[in-house]
């Protein structure tokens, strides 16, 4: 399988998992919950179940890519989920994205590019 397909599918898996993270955050809201409260919410919330389904779908894509490429390439590429979560947190959840966080994402992007070029 070509590196471009590996990168694309890994990015797809990371994007799906990242959207699931946003779905989880929207489900739990802003107020702190107890462990029991989280458990109860997990059982009755459609958003939680949609997030879980997204995680399963992302895992299936990820496992497929793992069957085609080395873990030492795929796993670092999957770190693109940090980029997606940061962007979605800012746009969807209206969270403040500081310059330090942006710098961290730039470092992650640089690392992902280096890993992709090494395959």
Automatic annotation (TrEMBL):
Its main location: membrane. Gene3D superfamilies: 1.10.3730.20. The keyword RNA-binding does not apply. It is found in: Cell membrane. Residues 3-116 form the EamA domain. One of its GO terms (biological process) is lipid metabolic process. GO terms for molecular function: transmembrane transporter activity. It is a multi-pass membrane protein. SUPFAM superfamilies: Multidrug resistance efflux transporter EmrE. Keywords: Cell inner membrane, Cell membrane, Lipid A biosynthesis, Lipid biosynthesis, Lipid metabolism, Lipopolysaccharide biosynthesis, Membrane, Transmembrane, Transmembrane helix. The chain crosses the membrane at residues 6-24, 48-67, 73-93, 102-118. Pfam families: EamA (PF00892). This is EamA domain-containing protein. It comes from Candidatus Micrarchaeum acidiphilum ARMAN-2.
